[in-house]
């Protein structure tokens, strides 16, 4: 173990070298702006607004029609349609690793049709994934898309629209993909503050639950060097009994994964030995 720890070639920062993206002054400025906007929103006590309202008998509103027209225009430029296809085929399945319903693959693209900020976040992450995969060093479409996503995100943050949560987590994924492990903590703090402010946890249901567990995976990765930002009570709702928690875990495809996460949380000081013992026994009986 000691020899492995001493081998710097095994660290993520060496096996996945950084490029010029993170040194771009534009990226650094917008990253700091996003961080400030998120914390300002998290500290605001105003009520949140539901995302993607259900259409009534009268069809979409003028605002929704304008947003849909804006997303169509966005996809008509450059390689953006290619980035969207890459998101659905390559990126979304990775984000959906903890969600058997495929929220990032199915729900997010539908929601993005009427939410330009979400669309630009999706395109930015997909473009960044392709840039990293292709080892590009100087040309970054993702930077322009990232900046536009943040510009369009600002009004949603002010309105406390729930759509900001998937948008911010997707942008966090982009930042984590671009940063060294030593800097991951900075990118996770904002999302943790939003989850706390909007009372989103691992059992919120629907898209928000899927978004939470996507974030939780990054949060747990960060613990290899530092600490978990998300309070343990957000992983395991304090209102749930052991039996109801286990039922939810074992009835979903998250069973073994979630119990494994709980084991990690136990190592972090959470006394939940009964949950783990019952969880593994119940899971093996499936």
From TrEMBL:
Keywords carried by this UniProt record: Nucleus
GO biological process terms on file: positive regulation of transcription by RNA polymerase II
Pfam family membership, one: Fungal_trans_2
GO molecular function: DNA-binding transcription factor activity; transcription cis-regulatory region binding
Subcellular location: Nucleus
Domain of life: Eukaryota
Keyword NADP: no
Keyword Nucleus in annotation: yes
GO cellular component terms given for this protein: nucleus
Record InterPro entries: Fun_TF (IPR021858)
Protein name as catalogued: Transcription factor domain-containing protein
